[in-house]
User: Fold these one by one.
Assistant:
Number 1:
Amino acid sequence: MGNNAMRAGLTGWITALGLPLLVVACGINVAQGRGVYERNCVQCHGDTGLGDGPFADKLLKPPTDLTVLARNNGGTFPAMYVTEIIDGHSRSEDFSGAMPEFGPGLGGEELQLGPLVDYLETLQR
Ligand code: HEC
């Protein structure tokens, strides 16, 4: 077998192995994000993000419908904006005091924020 053929074969293998691995890795990320969401957000934003959690009607300001974040941003999911709302870095003056700032508070692991935002992106309709 020539060197080129071997290289082509190798590339093929790497592609064949790597792609499913990538897909699986993303799935894990989203599943982790779903867990973070269930532990910290469902009470207010609801199981599917519509803003209809069990606490929702006890708040002065209704929790935002999290499934239309992309639609309300011209079709692009505003990942950066969403991240900074969740961790409290960029909230406007009149933002409801009901929603906690989750920066260091997501189960003590700040790293959870990324998967959480990835999960929220999957809720967009
Ligand atoms: C105690 C209730 C409560 C909890 C828990 C809560 N939120 Fe909220 N959230 C709200 C309320 C109320 C608003 C609306 C605030 C406003 O507009 O003043 C809001 C707004 C938001 C927004 C802003 C959307 C926009 O368009 O500005 C995002 C994003 C969001 N929440 C995500 C989350 C995530 C993710 C979690 C879990 C980590 C979470 N929230 C937990 C009550 C809550």
Note: Residues 29-122 form a domain with the Cytochrome Bc1 Complex; Chain D, domain 2 fold (CATH 1.10.760.10).
Number 2:
Amino acid sequence: MAKIVTFHSYRRGTGRTSILASLSVILARQGKRVGIVDTNIQSPSAHILFKLQDKDIGYTLDNFLWGESELEQTIYDVSKIANSASGRIFLIPSSDNMARIMRVLKEGIDVTLLTSAFSKFDELRDLDFIFLDSSSGITEDILLTMAVADILMVVMRLDEQDYQGVSMILDLAKRLELPRSMVIVNDIHGGYALKEVEKQIGVTFKCEVGGAIPHSDEFLRLASEDIFVLRFPEHPITGTLEKIAAKI
Ligand SMILES: Nc1ncnc2c1ncn2[C@@H]1O[C@H](COP(=O)(O)OP(=O)(O)OP(=O)(O)O)[C@@H](O)[C@H]1O
Ligand SMILES: [Mg+2]
């Protein structure tokens, strides 16, 4: 059975998708089979990081959810990017067509069907991990992607709004009796000692801390054009991401 890791954050733009993409590449390079589902239906972006062009995308997750395609037809092999002999990365993208996004927002999604998609994905591709890129905030479909998680990865920045939001998410995780939750603090600006931040967050939230990642202008300039660990293999942030991957 694949381990389901849900990447969540309270606010938008915390670096969730970038971190998910880097961790997928690290694990694929270790020979793992990683399946990614872009459940961030409102603002999908995983396909951009994995360089899946619009012209290469036929069916997407929403086609499956509306009975317009089989799940098999929504799975794209994006392993090439990781350049690994044995590891694999498969992506189920979401549509970035505005009309389709509006339809999901208006009609909602079939929760049972979405859950069935995760186990089917595992069955079809024999995965070690399923990474879910959830949307931010707390809504019904997010509760679902949280509830199925073996590990909930909460990505936050050092911001008062995030503090309150993350505390709410971790509280929910406790109520859902999730086996494991981990916080990743990202985009930490100069002046903070990373080790100290890690310690403080662990104490404040009484939770496991995956790692503390500093703000980096290189990361900012990447602007989703590439996956960080591929572009900057020797960067200290890559080292931190490798340590986080080892904890999954
Ligand atoms: N540590 C960092 N330092 C500087 N820039 C970063 C850092 N981490 C992520 N970024 C940048 O922040 C931007 C947003 O990242 P990303 O798209 O991964 O966030 P997200 O949480 O998935 O956003 P959304 O809520 O829209 O899905 C990207 O341009 C990314 O390169
Ligand atoms: Mg994202």
Note: The pocket of adenosine-5'-triphosphate (ligand 1) is lined by residues 9, 12-18, 40, 43, 45, 136, 186-187, 213, 215-216, 219-220, 222-224 (CB under 6 Å).
